């Protein structure tokens, strides 16, 4: 590939096109749109797929996993931050770290759990290269959350569970919000749960398609 083609696929125009598309699809939060514009998504996928990095589509990242679709990352980030006044966010399913990188400058601290160690090793380095330092990573099972730093003001999960994981709900601070896909394959619903003092309130943002939240290590 020549240098011009390389510049072309990451050009401001290509990124603007993606941002305009997300705006047309209803993403409103200016900080989220700016993050979608500025995070270099082509650095989160294989070089062979870099030319497709600014298409609004999920792409393979190895180990049978995918980088999430930009629209879905934007939608989940927007939902998490709507009225957000807290500091700490628990992220389950770090993967290549794209969602992490979009969210990191918008919150104080992210705790991120991923079950595939090899992915995590590369992602740690990638985020360091991008000067993102407010993220703590841990290899582990997302069904367990990360009790050590609980409760969290926000929880964001990038893999679908058939039911809301009890342990994640338990690690949510009062007033905090959990955003995650819930439901069986083919019928997943992007779900937002808000914890009030004495009850959980649940809302749906519509149908989505995620890899499963694998049970156990
Ligand atoms: N956040 C990524 C998307 C990752 S895809 C992005 O921004 O593109 C979902 C990730 O969840 C995969 O990396 C997968 O390995 C991870 N995952 C699946 N089940 C898990 C579990 N039980 N605990 C932790 N991570 C899990």
Quick recap:
The chain has 217 residues and is α/β, with parallel strands linked by helices. The protein has a domain at 58-208: Rossmann fold. The chain has helices spanning 3-9, 12-24, 30-38, 70-81, 98-103, 117-129, 166-170, and strands at 59-62, 65-67, 88-92, 109-114, 135-139, 152-157, 172-182, 188-195, 200-208.
What would you note in describing this structure?
The chain has 217 residues and is α/β, with parallel strands linked by helices. The chain has a domain of 151 residues: 3-Layer(aba) Sandwich (Rossmann fold), CATH 3.40.50. The chain has seven helices and nine strands. The protein has a seven-stranded mixed beta sheet. Helix 2 runs antiparallel to helix 3. It starts with a helix and ends in a 9-residue tail after the last strand. 38% of the residues are buried. The structure holds S-adenosyl-L-homocysteine (SAH). The site of S-adenosyl-L-homocysteine has 25 residues, from strand 2, helix 5 and strand 4. S-adenosyl-L-homocysteine (SAH) binds next to strand 2, helix 5 and strand 4.
What's the structural blueprint in terms of helices and strands?
Elements: H1 3-9, H2 12-24, H3 30-38, E1 59-62, E2 65-67, H4 70-81, E3 88-92, H5 98-103, E4 109-114, H6 117-129, E5 135-139, E6 152-157, H7 166-170, E7 172-182, E8 188-195, E9 200-208
Parallel strand pairs: 3-4, 3-6, 4-5, 6-7
Antiparallel strand pairs: 1-2, 7-8, 8-9
The structure holds S-adenosyl-L-homocysteine.
S-adenosyl-L-homocysteine binds at residues 65-68, 73, 92-96, 98-99, 113-116, 119, 141-143, 158-159, 211, 213-214.
